[in-house]
Design brief:
2 domains; 8 strands; two-stranded antiparallel ribbon; six-stranded mixed sheet; globular; 53% helix; alpha/beta; Rossmann fold; 16 helices
């Protein structure tokens, strides 16, 4: 009795969080009265909702603070890459400008005009930039945070949105200190800079602010990872998922976070292939929808940075030859995914030996139990699970090659 209860609790805790309990109950009810065919429209609507979920992140602060460079870093781009935000020492942003993520266009970073520019005074700033559009704000400064920054933060908080303080170009300051002093303690100097920023904001009426010290050119150093974790933790479920999937592939940890999200999505793709329009794949004893299957694998490739464009962008950022990064990927996972490749790799061939119950309890808790008996569901689920495992392992190898991680 106790074992059954704990299994149920574990399953409940792993239920994909982008479905509400009300939606889960409706799925079960519809399945009981009409089978998979009645459930598929609900799943299709959910996929459409997930694909249309927008995440809008605003960067603001004084002119020349490094907002554009930070936007590029958050999207995994160099200034020379196609679609990169314009970078300059003078005011380059005169209107709010949205920059979509290269693979997930519903995730947008907005470069807002500097609060110190002549066209935007602090008093009219939030009205002119259409404040309600953005999910949260990052206030960027290359030196001390100023009165405009504090005023803006108080208004953002008053209107019910979150904001974060980023002290940019920390590498420039630390390098200057290092050249000037015989003895230099980087950690101690960073704490002095952080304390100065916190003290200044406190005097301006911002109690206990958290300040992130970053360099957009060194995303694996200083507080950059802490910033990304803070943004991730404060987002709601669906937007949190979008944010993580849009993160640049810069560490094995990020690859594994993406894997966990994509793994929880697999049952949705499998359900769609569970009935209408099943097309046999030569060499398999079961059937699934080829379009759904290949579309899902291509999505996995892009989210894990294994498509050709992502590999070229990573090569530009790290200075590694793109051929060296591609050498870390199994050849059949590069380029176009076709039915022939799926057959040749053998994804899903062992599905007959996998029980529906095992799959339902493995990665498809609660909801999986109502679909687990369908052969097309099982086939698609197994193929996508094996494909994601292969792609994740290859993405980890790419990260190690790009950043020389042992």
């Amino acid at each position: 009795m106790g074992g059954s209860s704990s299994s149920q609790q574990a399953a409940q805790s792993e239920t994909p969080t982008f479905f509400t309990q009300e939606e889960i109950s409706k799925l079960k009810s519809e399945f009981e009265t009409g089978g998979v065919e009645k459930v598929q429209p609900l799943i299709q609507n959910k996929i459409k909702e997930l694909n249309n979920t927008e995440l809008n992140i605003a960067m603001t602060g004084d002119t020349g603070a490094g907002k554009s460079t930070l936007i590029n870093a958050m999207r995994g781009l160099c200034s020379k890459d196609e679609g990169a935000a314009a970078v300059g020492t003078t005011e380059t942003t005169m209107e709010p400008t949205g920059y979509p993520h290269p693979n997930l266009p519903n995730v947008r970073y907005w470069d807002l005009p500097g609060t110190g520019s002549t066209r935007f005074t602090a008093g009219s700033y939030l009205r002119k930039i259409q404040f309600q559009k953005y999910d949260f704000f990052i206030i960027v400064s290359a030196c001390r945070f100023r009165e405009n920054d504090a005023y803006l933060a108080k208004e953002i908080k008053r209107l019910g949105k979150r904001c974060y303080f980023v002290r940019s170009k920390i590498d420039v300051d630390l390098n200057s200190m290092r050249r000037e002093r015989k003895e230099f303690d980087e950690v101690a100097e960073m704490e002095i800079i952080r304390s100065d920023c916190v003290s200044g904001l406190g005097k301006a009426g911002i109690p206990n602010p958290t300040v992130f010290l970053i360099s957009s050119f060194d995303p694996d150093r200083y507080d950059f990872n802490r910033l990304k974790e803070a943004l991730e933790d404060d987002l709601t479920n669906v937007k949190k998922m979008a944010f993580i999937l849009a993160l640049p592939i810069e560490s094995v940890e990020i690859v594994r976070k993406k894997n966990e999200i994509l793994k929880k999505n697999i049952w949705i793709w499998a359900t769609l292939s569970g009935g209408v329009g099943a097309i046999p794949i030569p060499g398999f004893s079961l059937a699934c929808d080829i379009g759904i299957l290949i579309g899902a694998i291509i999505h996995f490739q892009k989210c894990l940075g294994l498509d050709d464009a992502s590999l070229h962008r990573l090569a530009n950022r790290t200075g590694k030859p793109v051929e060296e990064l591609k050498a870390a990927v199994k050849p059949h996972l590069l380029g176009e995914i076709t039915p022939d490749i799926i057959v040749r790799i053998g994804w899903g061939t062992a599905v007959v030996t996998v029980s529906a119950l095992e799959l339902a309890l493995d990665v498809v808790p609660v909801i999986g139990s109502i679909f687990g008996a369908g052969s097309s569901f099982l086939m698609t689920f197994k193929i996508l699970r094996d494909a994601l495992k292969d792609l994740t392992e290859n993405a980890e190898r790419v990260v190690r090659a790009a950043f020389e991680i042992n």
